[in-house]
Amino acid sequence: MNALPAMLPETTTAGGFLLVLTLILPFVGVLAALTLGGRHARRVAMLAIPLGLVLSLAIVVEAVQTERTLVYLLGGWAPPLGIVLRADGLSAVMLLTTAVILLAVALFAHADFDTPPGTREARRPFMFWTLLLAMWGSLNAVFLAGDLFTLYVALELLGFAGVPLVCLDERAETLQAALRYLLFALLGSVLYMLGAVLLYGAYGTLDIALLAGLVRPEPAAFAAAALMTVGLLAKTALFPLHLWLPPAHAGAPAAASAVLSALAVKGSFFLVIRLWLDVMPGIITPAAGQLLAAFGAAAILVGNVVALRQKRLKMLIAYSTVAQIGYLFLMFPLAAGLSAMQLPNDPAVTGGLLQAVSHATAKAAMFMGAGLIYATLGHDRIADLAGVGRQLPMTLLAFALGGSALVGLPPAGGFLAKWLLLSAALTTGQWWWVVVMVVGGLLTSAYVFIVVMRALVTVDAGNTPKMVVPRHREAVVLALASLSFLLGLAALLPVDIVQIGRPQPFAAGLP
Amino acid sequence: MNTTVVLLGATVGLPLAMLLACLWQPLRERMLPWLALGAVPGLFASWFAMRDELIVFGNAQVPLALAIDRPGGVLLGVAALLWIAGGAYAATYLGEKSSRDNFVVCWLMTLAGCLGVFVAADMASFYALLALLSVGTTGLVLSEGTPRAYRAGAIYIGMALFAESLILAGMVLTVVSAPGNSLLISAAPAAIDASPWRIEILVLLIAGFGIKAGLVPLHFWIPLAHGAAPVPASALLSGAVVKAAVIGLIRFMPIESAPWAVGATVAMLGLLGALYAVLVGITQSHPKTVLAYSSVSQMGVIVAIIGMGMAAGDGSARLIAAFYAANHVLAKGALFLAVGVIGLTGARRLPAMLLPAAVIAVGLGGLPLTGGALTKEVAKSLMGDGPAGVLATLSAIGTTVLMLHFVFCVRVTAADDDEARAPAGLVVPWLVTAGASIVIPWALYLTAGGYSLPDALAPKALWSALWPIAVGSLLAFGLVRWGGSLPRLPEGDVVVALDAATRAAGPVSAVFGRLDAVLRRWPAAAMSLLSIALLFGVAIVAGR
Amino acid sequence: MNVPTLFGLCGAVLVGLGLYGLVVSPQPLRKILAFNLVGSGVFLLFGVVARRGAALGMGGDPVPQALVITGIVVAFSATALAVALVLRLHDMTGAATLAPADADEPPVA
Amino acid sequence: MNLALLFDGMLVVLILAVAVWTVTVRDSFAAGIGYAVYGLLLALAWVRLAAVDAALTEAAIGGGLTSVLMIRATVRLRAGEAAARAATPGPLPRLLAALLGGSVAAGLALVVLALPDPAPTLAPQVAEHIATTGLGNAVTAVLLSFRAIDTLLEAVVLIYALIAVWTLTPDRFWGGRPGPKYETDPNGMLAYLARLLPPIGIVVAVYVLWVGADLPGGKFQAGTLLAAMWLLAIMAGLTEAPPISRRWLRGVLVAGTVVFLAIGFAGVPLAGAFLAYPEGFAKPLIVAIEAASMLSIAFTLALLVLGPPERRDQA
Amino acid sequence: MSQLLDLWTVLAVGAGVFFFFAGTVGLLRFPDTLTRLHALTKADNLGLGLVVLGLLPRVGSPLAGLKLICVWLLVLLASATASQLIARVARRAGPPA
C-alpha cells in the first residue's frame, strides 16, 4: 500500500476558529431567517452580512500578519481521516470580495425587497434575503473547504441557492432559464464527483494538500483531471458551455443577477484554480493549459461580439460576463509557463485573481446600475437610453467606472491584472495571449462606449421617470464601481496577499 | 527641493482636485471661469522646477514618481500657456451652452492628463495619465453632440485604446527586461537596448506613439476629431494633447544607440506623411480640417526629426524635436483660436483680425523672423542635405501653400454683418497666444538652444528661409485660381476604408450570433461538454 | 475479474448510458432520470472503491460509503428541485421544453 | 466462488438491461416505473458490495422517494408528452451522443481496471480511532465524527432544496398547503393501508435509527421511512400537509441542524475543536443528533416530494 | 437431521421458484391488466412464502426468522393493496387501449 507521506500533520493555527465562524455564520443566518420568517429575514441578513465582513477582514489581517495559511482541523481529526478548513491568500481575498459585494447588494436591495406592510410574509422579499444568505454560505464553504467532496457539496449548495434566485420573478422564460441552469450545473457537478471518486480510488484521500503530494502521472489522475476540470467549466459557463448564463443572469432581478454574475460564477472558477495550481500541477500538461486558454480566448471573442449585438442592457452585461469569464482562464497557461521556466508563478496567479476580483466588483455595480436604469425608464433597451445621464448621473458614472475597470484602464484593478498577465505572457513568450487581451480590451471598450454614449444623449425634459430612484441606492452602486476602479492601487500594498501560503513551485520539487 | 515637489505636485494635483470638486453639482456649474487657473502651476513648474529632480510618491513596489527634464520643461511651459489661454477662451466661447458640465469635466481630465504626461517619471503613472488624456479628449470631441462628433469620438477612442495597448505591451516588455524590473522611464532607453526583445519593443512603442502622433497612414482620426471638437478644444487637441506622443518618443527611444535602419524608416515615414498630409489638406475646404491636416504634417516632421536623430545617433535631436514641437503648440493653438475669432468678426474688422493669423500661418511654413524659421534652421543641422533635407524643404513649401489656402478658407467664414465684433473674451487670449507664438520661440532659441542673435539674422539663413515661402505663395495663388479642379476628398481620407470595414462587420457579427444560438441549444451544449472532456483527456495524456 | 471490478465496469457503463440519456432525451423529466442514472453509476464506483479497500474485518472502506450516503441525498434534493421546476414550468406554459421560444429574443429583467 | 460471480454477473446484466430500457422507452410513465425497479436492483448491488448502509439508503431514497417523484411528475405531464417527444434529435446527433457516452464509459472502465492493486484505504485509520466515538457502525462514525462537516452540510443541502422548491410557489398560494387535496374513499383499500402501515413504519424507523449506531442504519434511512409513512397518510387523505407559514413547521425543519450545530459548538470548549465530542459522551450526543435530524429529514423529504404549495390554507 | 432440513430447503425453494416462474409467464401471456394482476399477486406471493419457509431452517437466530416472516407479511399487504388500486384504475379507465 503506498504509504501516505509522513508530512508533518497539520495543526489548527491561531486564527483557525475565525474560519469556522465565517463558514457557519451564513448557515445560522439562513436557519434564523427561515424560522423567524417574514420581515425578520431582511433584519437577519442586514445583521449577518456586516458581521461576516468583519470576520473576513479579520481573516485577511490574520493571514497577512502570520504570512501563513490559516488551518482548522474539524472535530480535531487531521486529514486524511478528518476534514480541514484552510484559508490561504487566495481564499482570504475571495472571502473579503464576497463579503464586500454582498454588503453592497444588501444595501442596494434593501428598498427593492421589502415585505409590504399588510402581509405577515411575502414570498419574493422573504425568499430573496434567505437565498442571499444561502448563496453567501455556499461561497464561504467553497473558499474554505480543504476536501474535494466537501467542495462538491458546497458546489451543490451554490447551485441550489443560485437557481431560485434566477426564477425569483416567476416568469416563464426565467423558469426555463433556471431549469437549464440547474440541469447543466448538475451535469457538471456529477462529472466533478466522477473525478473525485477516481482520485479516492487511486490515492485513498480527497484532501487537497495530501493529494498534491500523492498525485502521480497515471490513468486515474489523467481521467480525474479532465473530468473535474470540465465539470467545473460547465458550472463556470466558459464558452462553449455558456448555454444557461445569458438568460439566467439577464432574467433574474437586478440584485440577484449582480450576485450571480459577480460571485456564483467565481465559486467554480476558484475550484479550477485549486485543482490546476494546488492539486494537479504535475499532471496538467502545457497542451491542456493552452487548450483551456483557447476556450477562454474564444469566449472573449464570441462573448464580446455577441454582446455588441444585444438590444437589451442586461443581456449585454450578461454576455459581457461570458467574455470576462474567458479572460479569467488566460492565467493557467501563463502560470504553467512560468513554473516550467523555474520562475515563481505569482504574476500570473495574482493577475488572474485580481482580474476575477475586479470583474466581480465591476460586474456587480453594472448589473445594479442596469437595475436602476430599468426601474427609472421602465425598459432597458440600449437604443433609447437617452436621458439616463441627466436622471441618474451617479449610476452612469458608476457604469463608466465599472466599464473602464473591465477594459483595464489605470488605476483600475483590471489594469493591474492586465499588466501582470502581460508581463507573465511576455516573459514566457506566449505572445498570442497578449493579442487576445488587446482584442478583448478593445471589444469591451466598444460596448461600454456605446452604452455610455447612448445614455449621455440629452433629451428634452419631457419624459417623466417611471420611478424616482432614491439617491442612496445610486451611491451604493457608485461606491462599488469606484472600489473596482481604484483596485489597481492594491499594487501599493506591502505584501502580496494572494501569494500567502502558496507553495513555491520549485520548492515543492516539481517533476 | 521642496519648491519642485510643490510645483510638480500641483501641476497634476490642481487639475485632479478641480476634477474631483466637479463631482459636487453646484461647484461643477461655477467651474467654467476657473478653467484657466488649472494650468498655472504647470507654467510655474516649467520655469522654476529643478530639472532632472526625481520626486517619488509611491512605495518600493510601485515608485509613482514625477520629474522634469529639459525637453519636458520646454513642452510643459508652452502647453501650460496654451491651456491657460484656451481656458480663458473657452470660458466665453461656451457661455451658457447646455453641455457645459460635460465639457468642463472632460476639459479638466484632458488638462490633468496632458500636463501630467510631461512630468510623469515612471511608466505606471505615465500610462495612467495617457489613458486619462484619451478619455478626456474623447469627451471633448463628443461635446458638440452632433452625429459627426459621435463618429469622430468613436473612432478616436478606438484608435487611442489600440495605441495605448501597443504602448502598454511595449512598456511591459521594457519593464520585464529592465534590471530589477524598475518602472522608471529614465531607465527605459538602456533597458530597451539591453533587452532580448529590442526590435519588438521599438516596433511596439513607435507604432503606439506613432498612432497617437498621427503618423500616416494611421492619422485619419486627427482631422475627424480636431474638426468635430469645439474651437478651444480643437486648439488644445492639435496643440498640446498630440505632443504627448512626442514626449513619449523623446523619453523612451534609445536615440544614441538605436539601429540606423529603425531611425531611417521612422524619418522617411514622418516626412512622406508630412507631404501626403499637405497634399490632402489643400483639397479640404473646412478651415479646422485644413489646420488638422497641417498638424498631421508638422507632427510628421517632428517624428522625422527624432527618426533622423536615431539614425545619426545624435542625442541633441531630443531638444530640437521639443523646440520644434513647442513652436507648433503655440502657432497651431493660435490659428485654431483665430478660426473662432474670425468666425464672429464682420467685414470691417476682418483685415485687422486676418493679418496676425496670416503672419502666424505663413510663419509655420518658415517665414523669416518667425518661430517657424528658427525651428527649420535648427532642424536643418539634423536633416542634412540628403533626401531628408530635400523632403523637409518640400514640406516647408507645402505647408506654406496649405497655410495660405487656410487663410483663404477662413476669410470666407467671416460673419455676414459687417459691424460684428468678436467679444474681447475671445480676442484677448487669441492675441496673447499669437504674441507668445512669436516671442517664445525666440526666447527658447536664444536661451535653451544656446545660439546667438546674429546666427539667426545672417543673410544666408534669411535667404534659405525666404525662397520656400516665395515658391509656396506662388503655388498658393495658382491653387486659388485652378483650385476648383482638385478632387473633393472626404474628411479623414483613409477613414473610408474603415467605414467599409464596419459595414462588412455586420454579417460577420451575425455569424457569431448564429454560432452562439446554435451552441446554446441543449444537445449541442451537452455534446460539446462531453467532447471537451475527451479533448482534455487527450491533451493531458498525449501532452506529457 | 473479481466482484468489485465487475460492478466497477457496470458503474462505468451506467455513467455512459446516463450521459447518453442526458444529451439526447428532449423532455426535461427524462433528463432528470438520466442524471439520476449517472449519479447512481458514480455512487456505484464509490461502492467499488470502498469494497476494494476492505480491511480489518470491515466489509469495505467506510469513508466512501459515507460519501455515497451523502451523495444520494444530495442527488435526491437536486431531483426534487428539478422536478418541482419542471412542473411549475409546465403549469405556467403548458409545455415543459428546454428550447427557448426563439433564441434571439431572450428574457428581460 | 465463481457461482457468486455468476450471480453478480446476472445482476449486473439485469441492472444494465433495466437502465437501457428506462433511457430508451418512449413513454415517460414507463420510464418512471423502470427507474423504481432499477433503484431496487441497485440496492441489491450495494448489498453485494458489502455496503448495507448504502443499500438501505439507495432502496429508500433512490428506489423509493425518487420514483414517487418521477411517477407523480410523469402522470401530470402526460398531456404534453407527444409534443415534447417530437423534439427528439435525429439519428446523427443520437449516434454522436452514443459515441461520446460510450467513449467516456470506456475511459472510465480503463481507469477502473487500472486502479492500484493494493487499494489505498482509510479503513485501518477508522478502525484505530473508532473507539473514541463509542460507535460500532464505522459508516455512522465517519458520517458523524470524522467527516461531521459533510453531514452538517448535507442537512443544510436539504433545507436549501426546500427553500428553493418553496420559491417556486405562485404568489397567491404563499403560506398555503403543499400538494393537491387528496380525497379517497374513507373505507377504501388505500385508507385501510394508510391506517395499518404507518405504526409499523414508525416502529421500524425508530429501530433503524437506534440500531444505526452499531449496525447498518441511521438517520437518513429512518427519516425516509417516516417521510414515506407520512406521505402515505396524506395521499390517503387521512391527514393534510401543514401550511408552510406555520412557525412550528419551520422549527421542526431546522431542529436537526440546530441541535447538530449546538453540539458542534459545545465541542469547542469541551473537546477542543468544533464538531468534536467530549470524551465518553460521544455516543449519547451522536444519538441525540441523529434523533433530532431524523425528524427534520422526515419532514423535509416529505415536503420536497409534495412540492411547492398549490392551494390556499383553508385552516 | 441436517440432510432432512437441506432436503426441505431445496424442495421448498424449488417450489417457490416454480411459482415465481408461473407468475412471470402469466404476466407475459395474459391478455389484459386484470388477469395479469391476478397472476402476479397470487403466484408471486405464494412463491415468496415458500422461499421464506424454505430458508427458515438456514437462518441463524429465531429473531432473523421472525424478520423473514415479517417481510413476507408486508409484501402480502403491499401487493394486495396495490393490485386492488390498479384494478380500480384499470376498470374505471375501461378496456385497455
Characterize the structure shown.
The complex is a heteropentamer of chains A (about 500), B (about 550), C (about 110), D (about 325) and E (about 100). By secondary structure, chain A is mainly alpha-helical. Chain A has helices at about 15-35, 40-65, 90-110, 125-145, 150-165, 170-205, 210-215, 220-235, 245-250, 255-280, 285-310, 315-330, 330-340, 345-375, 390, 395-405, 415-425, 430-455, 470-485, and strands at about 70-75, 85. Chain B folds into two domains: about 1-495, no CATH class; about 505-540. In chain B, α7 runs antiparallel to α9 (about 200-215) and α13 packs antiparallel against α14 (about 285-310). Chain C is mainly α and about 110 residues long. Chain C has a single domain (about 5-95), classed as Helix Hairpins. In chain C, about 70% of the residues lie in helices and about 0% in strands. Chain C contains three helices and no strands. In chain C, α1 (about 5-25) runs antiparallel to α2 (about 30-50) and α2 runs antiparallel to α3. Chain C is elongated, with a radius of gyration of 18 Å. Chain E has about 100 residues and is mainly α. Chain E has one domain (about 1-95). Chain E is about 85% helix and about 0% strand. Chain E has helices at about 1-30, 35-55, 60-95. At the C-D interface, α1, α2 and α3 of C face α1, α2, α3, α4 and α5 of D.
Mind describing the biggest β-sheet of chain A? 2 strands, antiparallel
Termini separation of chain B: 60 Å
Q: Uncertain spans of chain B, ≥5 residues at pLDDT below 50?
A: none
Helix/strand order of chain A: HHEEHHHHHHHHHHHHHHHHH
Outline:
Chain B is mainly α and 544 residues long. Chain B has 23 helices and 2 strands.
List keywords for this structure.
heteropentamer, C: 109 residues, mainly alpha, Helix Hairpins, disordered C terminus, D: 315 residues, 2 domains, 12 helices, globular
